[in-house]
Amino acid sequence: MTVPPAPEPVPVQEPVPFAMPVTVPVPPAPPEPLIEARFDADYLANPKPAYPLISRRLGEQGVVHLRVHVGTDGLPLKVEVKRSSGFERLDRCAQETVTRWRFVPAKRGSNAVASWVVVPIVFSLT
């Protein structure tokens, strides 16, 4: 009589421990685009600076670039000369005028946000 071969041992599997669900972080949505502040809307009625009389007599002219920090209410928080016209009188006149201007504030989505904008002021005798 022949003895049947012994069955091969079946490996015992360890029980799988209960795994907690893994939370995969969702990347944040990209920020909404920024719509820059504006100073050139007609309804703002921002006056041009008065040309200083002495500057006219001396033939001073040029372009002043002002860097303006505009608040959420559209009012300038800070006005500084970014690039001079080359004449302090013209720079000062432009700066004093723009401090009284109103702006359309920058927006991110539907929310007004403070931002910087560059305002060129041209003084030309022609």
UniProtKB/TrEMBL annotation:
GO terms for molecular function: energy transducer activity. Residues 36-126 form the TonB C-terminal domain. It comes from the Bacteria. It is found in: Cell inner membrane. Transmembrane segments: none annotated. Pfam families: TonB_C (PF03544). Its main location: membrane. GO terms for biological process: protein transport; transmembrane transport. InterPro entries: TonB-dependent_transducer, TonB/TolA_C, TonB_C. Keywords: Cell inner membrane, Cell membrane, Membrane, Protein transport, Transmembrane, Transmembrane helix, Transport. The keyword Ribonucleoprotein does not apply. GO terms for cellular component: plasma membrane protein complex. PANTHER family: PROTEIN TONB, PROTEIN TONB-RELATED. This is Energy transducer TonB. The lineage of its organism: Bacteria, Pseudomonadati, Pseudomonadota, Betaproteobacteria, Nitrosomonadales.
